[in-house]
Amino acid sequence: MSDSIATAERTPGRKGAESEGGVPIVLDGVTKKYPGTDSAAVDDIHLEIAPGDIVMLVGPSGCGKTTTMRMINRLIEPTSGRILIDGEDVLSLNDVKLRRTIGYVIQQIGLFPHLTIESNVSMVPKLLGWDKARTAARVEEMLAVVGLDPDEFAHRYPRQLSGGQQQRVGVARALAADPPIMLMDEPFGAVDPITRTKLQDEFLNLQKRLRKTIVFVTHDFDEAVKMGDKIAVLDKGSRIAQYASPEEILTSPADDFVAGFVGHGATLKRLQLERLDSLELHPSTEAVDGVEPVPMQSTLHDVLDAMIADGRDAIPVTDDGKVVAAVTLEDLLGRVRELRAEADAKQGVTTADSRPGATPGTTPDPDLEAGTRSDQQS
Ligand code: ADP
Ligand code: MG
């Protein structure tokens, strides 16, 4: 009896067999000064990235985004400061651990042209010493995950794929060893806008399941708003002008630099972040002849777009394909007013907060002073 217990087959532990989500990343005073340059490419950046978040690094060309990214996976060594992954200094990780921990996707894709798609995707598993069967199964799974039929694509070469398909292979390759961290440097920057939207949507869906920790570089603020749990708006030297949720950056940009980056149409962009199910809608089961209903998951931006396109100020809303409510232009405007009020309230708080030493009413306001002077001159 006790023998049978001792020899009973155990289910092998599944730890590591499946994604367990992301791990935290901390950049602690990281600086990179390239030899022979006057100013640092990355100047004392501090950034904490929570496990399972997509953090968008957004900023003008040359501000240090790629350098920051490449220090995380040790392709570039920092001049000073520390980078911690799940509490461990990246400089102390060996190559195997590093490959297992971080997947890397870049705009130029970086597929090996003389290797088949299968060989490209299986590269890291092979380096990690996975056996043939496990590797082959993983390649098939990953191609399917990114929407490429393995039977059709596994044996092709990169040049036999479109740009969008190649980019999918790039994502599959980075995910192959199931790393908790993905670094993505302008991954969808080189494809046409329609393909880009599709890749973004698919990737967001994938991430809902995987919950990786993702650092995603872009120079496109709209992409940052769409993809990010948080956005770090970077100025020269990777100076963090603001690190906050997309909602917060849109409603209260920290300074003129951030406001300039947000650009025009902040209210419309904000509507892209709100979905119909966040509004109180009028229940209704009536379809309207000739009006295409909108699904409950639509963004307020899409609903407004549909209203303008149809020339209507009320549209039926469906849930699971059935009409359950109606949304009106007044509903949307009401929400816009609320957002404005929230932003104004916050603005008041931020202004007071941002002058910690200031006692209201006693500190001279430079603008007012200038105004007084010019009054006196005239
Ligand atoms: P971004 O990705 O935001 O466009 P980069 O990180 O590529 O910016 O570059 C930041 C700064 O560092 C730029 O001024 C760039 O010219 C400089 N730089 C990048 N790589 C090197 C290098 N290998 N040697 C010297 N300077 C570099
Ligand atoms: Mg770059």
Describe the structure.
This protein has 378 residues and is α/β, with parallel strands linked by helices. Helices cover 41% and strands 20% of the residues. It contains 16 helices and 14 strands. The strands form 3 sheets. Strands 6-7-8-3-9-10 form a 6-stranded mixed β-sheet, with helices on both faces. A hairpin with a 3-residue loop joins strand 9 and strand 10. Helix 6 packs across helix 8. The chain is globular. The N terminus and C terminus are likely disordered. Bound molecules: adenosine-5'-diphosphate and magnesium ion. The site of adenosine-5'-diphosphate has 10 residues, from helix 2.
Q: TL;DR of this structure?
A:
41% of the residues lie in helices and 20% in strands. The protein is α/β, with parallel strands linked by helices and 378 residues long.
Helix-strand layout with pairing:
Layout: H1 2-7, E1 25-32, E2 42-49, E3 54-58, H2 65-72, E4 80-85, E5 88-89, H3 95-101, E6 102-106, H4 117-121, H5 123-127, H6 132-145, H7 150-153, H8 163-175, E7 181-185, H9 193-210, E8 213-218, H10 221-227, E9 230-235, E10 239-244, H11 246-251, H12 256-262, H13 266-271, E11 282-283, E12 294-295, H14 300-310, E13 314-319, E14 322-328, H15 329-353, H16 366-377
Parallel strand pairs: 3-8, 3-9, 6-7, 7-8, 12-13
Antiparallel strand pairs: 1-2, 1-4, 4-5, 9-10, 11-14, 13-14
Helix pairs in contact: 6-8
The structure holds adenosine-5'-diphosphate and magnesium ion.
Task: Please give a handful of descriptors for the protein shown.
binds magnesium ion, binds adenosine-5'-diphosphate, single chain, 20% strand, 16 helices, alpha/beta, disordered C terminus
